[in-house]
Amino acid sequence: MFLILDRNFNVGDFVRWNDRGGTVIGIGLRTTRVRTPNNEIVTIPNNDLSTKRVTAVARRKPIGFTVVAESRTIAFRQ
Description:
mainly beta, SH3 type barrels, five-stranded antiparallel sheet, 2 helices, 5 strands, rod-shaped, transmembrane helix
């Protein structure tokens, strides 16, 4: 509960704890979920995060992209 109230980090932040790191993808009442650079999802008890050293490195910037859809009709004569 204290982890949520303290707001040490938010969803989208890159955090480091122990010898691991990853992007926070969810913060619940009991656990925090983190996606590692290897694309693994790690669930960490909030009690562990409140008693260990956690460093919030940076907020992940959104990646923007554009999708272009195009449709063409080609007629063939036989």
